[in-house]
Amino acid sequence: MKVPVPEDSALLPSLLTLSDVFGTGYHAAVRAGVNPRTTVTVIGDGAVGLMAVLSARRLGAEQIILMGRHKARTDLGLEFGATDVVAERGEESVARVRELTGGDGSHAVLEAVGYRAAYDQALGVVRAGGVISRVGMPQYAEASIGFPDFFRHNITLTGGPAPVRAYIETLLPAVLDGEVEPGKVFDRTVFLEDVPAGYRAMDDRKALKVLVRP
């Protein structure tokens, strides 16, 4: 898709997020039905999780809880619109989210990790009648979807690969107008020959998102 900016535009990093992480985070929020009346918990402080925070804020959510433990990332999450950060793990993290939501849990849980532990966290923090929206590629073959976790509490499970092209027209104007700067998730730039090192940096949690230049 052509955009009305030069190749050296300062908007380039933010525009690039529209082809991947911004659209994916937005997809998670849309599939969960996020709106001004929903409380939201985002699981994962990677680039997609941070974009889910930004998307939930743009869809009107007033309480957005970010579950993550990398301070530089969660600080960016606060900048993008998170109201609370939960750094605890396991049962303590679930208890903390429940505390922040008055004991009820969140209407919408956006799971942006893909590990079974994150899925179990989502089950722990979603409220009765709520939605779990998964956009993290599942790294597990089996997980609870029956009674009592889902059926008894009327929980909806949704999400999947994001059709990011379908969201570009919706998200692009705010990027062009400078209302949002999702390109802040890029914290390292590499050239083509350094792409393997860029992947390693992300895998080692030394980089949040790597931008590749020719």
List keywords for this structure.
single chain; 214 residues; alpha/beta; two-stranded parallel ribbon; 8 helices; 36% helix
How do the strands and helices of this protein lay out in sequence?
Elements: H1 12-17, H2 21-31, E1 39-43, H3 47-58, E2 63-67, H4 71-80, E3 84-86, H5 90-100, E4 106-111, H6 116-125, E5 126-134, E6 156-159, H7 168-176, E7 186-191, H8 195-203, E8 209-213
Parallel strand pairs: 1-2, 1-4, 2-3, 4-5, 5-6, 7-8
Description:
By secondary structure, the protein is an alpha/beta fold. The protein has a single domain (15-164), classed as 3-Layer(aba) Sandwich (Rossmann fold). Helices cover 36% and strands 20% of the residues. It has eight helices and eight strands. It has helices at residues 12-17, 21-31, 47-58, 71-80, 90-100, 116-125, 168-176, 195-203, and strands spanning 39-43, 63-67, 84-86, 106-111, 126-134, 156-159, 186-191, 209-213. The protein has a six-stranded parallel sheet with strand order 3-2-1-4-5-6, sandwiched between helices. Strands 7-8 form a two-stranded parallel sheet. Helix 4 (71-80) links the parallel strand 2 (63-67) and strand 3 (84-86). Helix 3 runs parallel beside helix 4 (71-80) and helix 5 (90-100) packs parallel to helix 6. The mean pLDDT is 96.
Summarize this entry quickly.
With about 210 residues, the protein is of the alpha/beta class. Helix content is about 35%, strand content about 20%.
Please state how the strands of the largest beta sheet are arranged side by side.
3-2-1-4-5-6
CATH homologous superfamily identity: NAD(P)-binding Rossmann-like Domain
The residue ranges in which pLDDT falls below 50 over 5 or more consecutive positions are none
- Range of strand content: 15-25%
Q: Count the strands?
A: 8
Number of domains: 1
Helix % is 25-40%
- Biggest beta sheet summary: 6 strands, parallel
Mean pLDDT: 96
Q: What's the CATH architecture?
A: 3-Layer(aba) Sandwich
SSE arrangement, N to C: HHEHEHEHEHEEHEHE
CATH class: Alpha Beta
N-to-C CA distance: 19 Å
Output the radius of gyration: 17 Å
Task: Find the CATH topology.
Answer: Rossmann fold
Class inferred from helices and paired strands: alpha/beta
Number of helices, counting only DSSP H or I runs of 4 residues or more: 8
